[in-house]
Write a structure and sequence with these properties.
The protein is an all-alpha fold. 66% of the residues lie in helices and 2% in strands.
Amino acid sequence: MASGWFYLCCLVLGSLGSMCILFTAYWMQFWCGGFAWDGSTHTFNWHPVLTVAGMVVFYGAGSLVYRLPQSWLGPKLPWKLLHAALHLMAFSLTVMGLVAVFKFHNHNRIANLYSLHSWLGITTVFLFACQWFLGFAIFLLPWASLWLRSLLKPIHVFFGASILSLSIASVISGINEKLFFTLKNATQPYSSLPSQAVFANSTGMLVVTFGLLVLYILLASSWKRPEPGILTDRQVWFPVSHSRWGRAGSREGSPRKGSGLAKKANTVAWWETR
C-alpha cells in the first residue's frame, strides 16, 4: 500500500513538473515574444524557463532518487551516480539561465544583482554548488570514512531541502518581479489582473505545489531508504514460507538467527559501504 501511494505521488509529481516547465515556456513564448540569444529581451526569456527546469524540476527529481523502493536494497553506487547526474543537470541548466540574464543585462546596460530576487537566486545557486561538490567529494568518492559520512549526512539532507525551498522562493519572487516590470502601463496594470498575470500567477502556484509535494515525499518516514541493517515494517516484504508472506520485523515474518532471511537483511549494511 505504501509503495502504491508512493508511485501515485511520483506520477502526480511528474505531471506537475512537466506543467511547470511547459507553462513557463508558454508564458515566455506567447506573452513575452519568444526566445533568442542576441542580448535582447528574448534572451532574458530563457532565464525563467531554464531556472524552473533546473533548480525546481530536475533538482526535485534528483532529491527523490533514494525514495525509490528499488534503491532500498542492493548496491547504492548506481543510485548515487543517478542522484549526482540529475543534480549536475539541474546545475548546468541553472547556470545557462544565469548566463542568459547577465547577457541581457550587460547588453542593455542594466545593473546586475540589485533586487532581492537576484540576491536570493544567487545565494541559492551558490549553496547548491557547495552542496553538490561536497556531496561528490564525501559521498561519491571512496576516500571518506563511514563515520564522516554519517556525521555529514544530516547536514547534507537539511541543505538539500533548504535549497529546494529557496529555489521556490526565488522563482516566486522572479515571477512577481517580471510581472511588475511587464504590466506597468496604464491600460493593463498588474492590479487589474490581466490574462498574463492570471497565467503567470497560476504557474507560480504550480511551482509551489510541486515543491511542497517533493518536500512531503522527502519527509515521509515510510519512504526513506533504510539505515544500514534496518528494514522497516512498511518498506520491505520477504517470503517466510512457501505458502504465505510476512513483513520483515513483524511477528509473522521476523527473521531467525542464521536464517536466509536474516542474512538477506544483513546485506544492507554490507552494500551501504559500496
